[in-house]
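On clarity, I found the account of how folds are encoded harder to follow than it need be. Since the whole study asks how a given chain folds, the encoding of that fold should be made plain. For the editor and my fellow referees, an illustration may be useful. An entry of this sort, consisting of the sequence and the corresponding backbone structure tokens, reads as follows:

:::
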Amino acid sequence: MKIGLVLEELHRSENDLAHELLQVADRHKVDHEIYHVGRDLAVWSQRHVREIAEIAERYGQKLDPEPRGESTLAAKLVDKSSELMGRAKFPGLLLLRDLRGLYLKAAGVSTDWEMLAQAAQGIKHTDLLEVCQRCHPQTVRQMRWANGKLKESSTQVLVS
């Protein structure tokens, strides 16, 4: 079975999504909704990382149950230096780029959850299916939030 490989990829993708949500929240602290909701949504992906690591052992994978944390000091310095070199001139465009990236990452994670759920259903592994049914809707919610914020912000940012 190749389910272990899908779990490994999903683990990596959820970690990336959580990390990206935290970075976007940090970059857009002045927008309280982006900051607070982004951090809350990151917690969901961090929880998913733990659940994936736990069930992956049954499929021959040893995955780290601890999600990647906040940005490192070095990453924050790189972010700040690029901001000072001109990126901050267009914070609205940066927000749109960040939201687009979040949407695409969440869509990829959602697809992985869907594939895994289909496989679990096909081989009648109810424990794996339950994890999918618990986590996938939250990923869909992350994707919808990013898409909604894109819709809300696009006109103002692109027309002004």
The chain has one domain: 3-153. The mean pLDDT is 90. DSSP finds five helices and no strands in the chain. The CA atoms of residues 50 and 65 lie 5 Å apart.
